[in-house]
Amino acid sequence: MTTDPRSLAQLVDHTLLKPEATRADVDALVAEGARLGAYSVCISPSFLPVEVPAGLKVATVCGFPSGKHHSEVKAAEAARSVRDGADEVDMVIDVGAAKEGRFDAVQADIAAVRAAAPAPTVLKVIIESAALSDDEIVGVCRAAEAAGADFVKTSTGFHPAGGASVHAVRIMHDTVGGRLGIKASGGVRTAQDALDMVEAGATRLGLSGTAAVLAGLEADAGY
User: Fold this and answer.
1) Model confidence, pTM
2) Tens-of-pLDDT digits for all 223 residues of the chain?
3) What CA–CA distance (Å, rounded) separates 128 from 137?
4) Which of 1, 116, 128, 222 is the most exposed place for a label (fewest CB within 10 A)?
5) What are the residue boundaries of the structural domains of the chain, listed by start?
6) How far apart are the C-alpha atoms of 61 and 44, rounded to whole Å?
7) Strand partners, 12
8) Are 185 and 153 in contact (CB under 8 A)?
9) Whole-number Å distance between alpha carbons of 23 and 45
10) Active site residue 68
11) Long-range contacts formed by 113-118: CB under 8 A, 24+ apart
């Protein structure tokens, strides 16, 4: 398991999605992400395009945070983000469709965004795992894989049901791990939280408090 701070940083989408965020906040996020060695910065689509140093990827969100958008609207948003320089798009599913067991509709929604943002753009699918049963998590993960997604992601971090859990990450990994990436996001605030998610199968972490997590890891490891 990854315990070296530099290696862990390369799993991190350094994230700022607060509605009150300003351009100055985004500039500071980019500088901090580069300094910490994060894999990417994840920002709202209205901040695109954004200039980043070489080696730092740009991720954004789509249908965020509710997922209650028409598929064609999500597709248009994703296509615009790609034109504006996004390397990765994290889309939110219609969680209600999953709760109703309409996994065909979930798959079609994801497929629409995939068509609008084809490879090499990385497509992550936010399933809002805290609002789903175990069987629903499995169904959504299978739909994401069938639709051509690259990752499944636990959470927006804005849902009242909560964010990432080790339990959900394990189910996601057991369902699609090795074929799709697993992103744990929402409520991952400490070094131990991050390590627990990676141990459960997460291959990417969405963190807003990246500096604190890495500092905690350095302290625990005696760096």
Assistant:
1) 0.97
2) 667 999 999 999 999 999 999 999 999 999 999 999 999 999 999 999 999 999 999 999 999 999 999 999 999 999 999 999 999 999 999 999 999 999 999 999 999 999 999 999 999 999 999 999 999 999 999 999 999 999 999 999 999 999 999 999 999 999 999 999 999 999 999 999 999 999 999 999 999 999 999 999 988 766 5
3) 9
4) 222
5) 5-221
6) 6
7) 205
8) yes
9) 12
10) no
11) 113/62, 113/63, 113/71, 113/74, 113/75, 113/78, 113/89, 114/147, 114/148, 114/149, 115/75, 116/74, 116/75, 116/76, 116/78, 116/79, 116/82, 117/75, 117/78, 117/79, 117/81, 117/82, 117/89
Number of neighbours of residue 209 by Cβ within 10 angstroms = 15
Tell me if residue 220 is catalytic: no
Judge residue 117's burial from the number of C-beta atoms within 10 Å of its C-beta, 0-12 exposed, 13-18 middle, 19 or more buried. buried
Which is catalytic among the residues 13, 124, 150, 183? 183
From 13, 74, 90, 196, active-site residue: 90
Q: How far, in Å, CA of 118 to CA of 113, rounded?
A: 8
Residue among 94, 109, 150, 153 flagged as catalytic: 153
Of the candidate CATH numbers 2.60.40.1930, 3.20.20.70, 3.30.230.10, 3.90.320.10, the domain formed by 5-221 belongs to 3.20.20.70
Please indicate whether residue 99 is annotated as part of the active site: no
* Rg (alpha carbons) of the chain, rounded to whole number: 16
Among 128, 138, 214, 212, which residue's Cα sits nearest to residue 176? 138
